[in-house]
Amino acid sequence: MTTLQQLLDQKAELDKQIETTRREERADAIAQVKALMDQHGLVVADLGLRAGKTAARKGAKVAAKYRNSATGETWSGRGLQPKWLSAAIHNGRKIEDFAV
Predict the structure, then answer these.
(1) DSSP per-residue letters across 23-68
(2) Fewer beta carbons under 10 A from the terminal one: N or C of the chain?
(3) Do residues 75 and 99 touch, judged by C-beta distance below 8 A?
């Protein structure tokens, strides 16, 4: 009968093999893509992709579209409208009055 420790050791070995195979297949895929790009004279821009990881863009700062001149607070126009802007609009001002 197989013990728990033997099964855990087998799992660890399989995890190592999976990671090694994943790295090798990824390297092969990258080499194939590079070869095709060289063969056809393509660059990353031709693919409509950006160089680097797309996750790096997540959470990036967005330029302010609206500014409270009294306090200097800003809002990009994304997400919930800030309280200072909601209050000003409620008091009769227009959102265009705060455009940057």
Answers:
(1) HHHHHHHHHHHHHHHHHHT--GGGGT--SS-GGGGTT-----SEE-
(2) N
(3) no
Say if pTM beats, i.e. exceeds, 0.70. no
Distance (Å, whole) CA 24 – CA 57? 27
d(CA 76, CA 100): 10
* Number of neighbouring beta carbons within 10 Å of residue 79: 8
Q: Classify residue 73 by burial, with Cβ atoms within 10 Å: 0-12, 13-18, 19+.
A: middle
Per-residue pLDDT of the chain (100 residues; tens, 9 = 90+): 889 999 999 999 999 999 999 999 999 999 999 999 999 999 888 888 766 665 556 677 888 999 998 888 999 998 899 999 999 999 999 999 899 8
Host H or E run for residue 74: strand 74-75
Using CA atoms, how far apart are residues 91 and 66, in angstroms rounded to an integer? 17
